Amino acid sequence: MKGQDMIICFCLLILASAASSQHIQHVNCPFQYLYHFGDAFTDVGNSIHVPSRTPNPAARLPYGRSSPGWPTGRWSDGLNDFDFAATDFGLPHLAPYLNMNASEKYDGVIFSVARSLVLDINFFKSRGIKIPPYAAVPLSAQLRWFKSYLNSNFPSAKERATRMENSFLFLGDIEANDIGYALTQGKSIEEVQTYVPLITRAQIRVARELIRMGATRLIIPGNAPLGCFPYILTALHSNNSRDYDELGCLKSVNDLIVSKNDYLQQAIRDLNLEFPNIILNYGAIYDGTLEVIRDASYGPNGELALLACCGTGGKYNYDSKRFCGSPQVPVCRYPNQYIFWDGIHFTHHAYSRIETILIEPALRTLGCTRSVNSTTSNLSASV
Ligand SMILES: *[C@@H]1O[C@H](CO)[C@@H](O)[C@H](O)[C@H]1NC(C)=O
Ligand SMILES: *[C@@H]1O[C@H](CO)[C@@H](O)[C@H](O)[C@H]1NC(C)=O
Ligand SMILES: *[C@@H]1O[C@H](CO)[C@@H](O)[C@H](O)[C@H]1NC(C)=O
Ligand SMILES: CC(=O)N[C@H]1CO[C@H](CO)[C@@H](O)[C@@H]1O
């Protein structure tokens, strides 16, 4: 091993142990169960159980390579976004809805499926936008799964109400695919802008229905800065340097996401007026992700910030026809130096960083307390 490699390994080891110690502390929250609707960022193994004639990349190595060392159906080299969040809430034992073990007790059930959308597939079909042949379970279908799960596990209305009251529900990130499929298939920013009210209304409809079913805590995290993602940067490549911001992200796409997130936040405020006794929050996944990308861009491996670790070709190490996991597609040596795993999803390391930024403030808002052995510290005082 060369001296430089050793230094890199050593630094990564320190980073890894710092990250894990943040996730070990014992946390007590005023809820006991987690439910998540979303896409690949939070899919803990559903997409590989959706029947499909096309092979699913996440079912094979190099997915899962860094942790636990074999594929788990997560679309990263290890864990993903919600694994870290759940651990931070002290509720780490999650099950993918499509692969639950009846003899196990879970802290949470995940309905998220990679490649899923908010809007129904016909919306895209009628506009000539193709949806991938596998996975893609729209939000409305994920909600039906949830109802079926509740009804079969909690036969009485009282049991269901108690369960809802003791749960924390997450609705998204999921809309990235509604926008991403359209943009990568040549739809203009102006056209996709017209989808925003429809996407937002559909999300709010689901949120309202969950609240009417008894949900008391609900978060709608909004959307990450898609204009920084290798698959978008590749598909919408421009020769005009003024189309890019100082990090190298596409301004027009990030402006679209910011205005979409603003629209969502207003809709969340309106829903809060309708249900003033519910904890209903927006989650700043946009800011958290941008912070991680910015830190990486100005760090020692800045040139890797917008590159896929697993991939090949082009300026961003991404080619949709030679996707991660295809024959002869290389994987980077140190995934922890990268933010993007396969050009569409994050690395284990990046998910951990983003989640820490998002969850720390949420823990306080939600009234969670952190205990260090026998002493319980007041989070708002200690963090
Ligand atoms: C289900 O869980 C039980 C108890 O943990 C375990 O013994 C069994 O092997 C599991 N079944 C499957 C299919 O994973
Ligand atoms: C950018 O420049 C290259 C090389 O000059 C050219 O082949 C390509 O078509 C240009 N792309 C756009 C979007 O203008
Ligand atoms: C924690 O501390 C804050 C500020 O000192 C206080 O307002 C709050 O009531 C405390 N919460 C608990 C659970 O002790
Ligand atoms: C004094 C004491 O109980 N220390 C324990 C605190 O918690 C850590 C992690 O669970 C243990 O390793 C210590 O032994």
Could you explain how this protein is built, in words?
The chain has 383 residues and is α/β, with parallel strands linked by helices. It has 13 helices and nine strands. The strands form two sheets. It has a six-stranded parallel β-sheet, sandwiched between helices. The longest helix is centred in the last third of the chain and has 24 residues, at 251-274. Bound molecules: 2-acetamido-2-deoxy-beta-D-glucopyranose (4 copies).
Features:
383 residues; 13 helices; 6-stranded parallel sheet; 3-stranded antiparallel sheet
**CATH level-3 fold name:** Rossmann fold
**Name given to the CATH architecture:** 3-Layer(aba) Sandwich
* Whole-number tally of structural domains: 1
Question: What value does the Rg take, in angstroms?
Answer: 20 Å
Q: Specify the number of helices.
A: 13
Shape field? globular
Taken in chain order, the helices and strands follow as: HEEHEEHHHEHHHEHHEHHEEH
Helix content: 40-55%
Distance between the termini: 40 Å
| Bound ions, cofactors and other small molecules, one mention each | 2-acetamido-2-deoxy-beta-D-glucopyranose
What is the H level of CATH, i.e. the homologous superfamily? SGNH hydrolase
Compute the number of strand runs.
9
Proportion of residues in extended strands: 5-15%
Structural class: alpha/beta
